[in-house]
Amino acid sequence: MRRLHLGIAGGLAGVAAIGGLLAWWLTRSAPLGLERSRVVLASGEVTLDGARAVPTQLLAVGATIHTGHGNACFSVHGSRVCVGANAEVVLAELGEASATVQANRGTVVIASARDDLHVVLPTGTVVARVARVAIEDVGSPTTTVRALDASVAVTSTGQADLVLAGPDAILLKDGKKRPRAPTLEAEERSIVTLAGSWQGTAGAVIEIDGLHGRVEVDGTDVGLAPAAVLVAEGSHTLVVRDSGRETTHETLKLKAGQKVVRGG
């Protein structure tokens, strides 16, 4: 009889374990994937095709991102494209291992993982593969190409094609060298590094809405509130500063698919 009771108990435990596993499977957050481009960061004034941009939002080919006093980043597979204030970019093409981004104005920072990323400018083209590059003041006579690391190919109207090795910078219109800007370069590297922390998992979103000031996530200045960032699951630090004073400082433990809102 004891053996019978043990057998029944063991069977029930097995059923319970299977039920628990099934419940977890049905409720778990599915990976978002890297096949399609998504918004991963938006701060201040950012629109996607005329509507407010939010993290995890998909970008179709032909989609246009505008920024006012804000920043934005989006994914291209494992690579990242970030833009600064008063910028306009279009996702012109998206292949299996390549993409073309049309930059019309502002500053664009590219972090290419394995993709061939072509940035088409009003007066030239920059191509990056396994490299990070910033293109500043797009659409102006002072457009500067700044190779943050590795090498990028640069084509400029009326100039010979060249390869720019980082860390170095040139003026696009004539290829003349520009001075290094260590502080600016560190900020440009930092923003694409943060934007690349999410790599296709279910991820988690940190959103700051209703607060004033500049927002930092994991030590990176992402811009003015309101702001939202798609990050990998795990521990992240959120700081908000208003007029130089720290108003929020919090360590967040984020689970897959979680969204944390502060100030809303």
Give the SSE map:
Elements (H helix, E strand, L loop, with lengths): L1 H26 L9 E7 L2 E3 L2 E2 L5 E2 L4 E4 L3 E6 L2 E5 L4 E7 L3 E14 L4 E6 L2 E5 L3 E7 L5 E6 L1 E6 L5 E4 L2 E4 L10 H14 L8 E5 L5 E4 L2 E5 L2 E5 L2 E9 L2 E10 L4 E4 L2
Parallel strand pairs: 9-10, 17-23
Antiparallel strand pairs: 1-4, 1-6, 1-20, 2-3, 2-5, 5-8, 6-7, 7-9, 8-9, 9-12, 10-11, 11-14, 12-13, 13-16, 14-15, 17-20, 18-19, 18-21, 21-22
Short characterization:
The protein is of the alpha+beta class and 264 residues long.
Describe the structure using short key phrases.
Jelly Rolls, four-stranded antiparallel sheet, 15% helix, disordered N terminus
Order of helices and strands: HEEEEEEEEEEEEEEEEHEEEEEEE
Quote the average pLDDT: 90
Quick one: overall form? globular
Number of domains: 2
Q: How would you characterize this protein structure?
A:
This protein is α+β, with helices and mostly antiparallel strands. It folds into two domains: 37-194, Jelly Rolls, CATH 2.60.120.1440; 197-262. Helices cover 15% and strands 49% of the residues. The protein has helices at 2-27, 182-195, and strands spanning 37-43, 46-48, 51-52, 58-59, 64-67, 71-76, 79-83, 88-94, 98-111, 116-121, 124-128, 132-138, 144-149, 151-156, 162-165, 168-171, 204-208, 214-217, 220-224, 227-231, 234-242, 245-254, 259-262. The strands form two sheets. It has a 19-stranded mixed β-sheet that branches. Strands 19-18-21-22 form a four-stranded antiparallel β-sheet. It starts with a helix and ends with a strand. Residues 1-6 and 19-27 have low confidence and may be disordered.
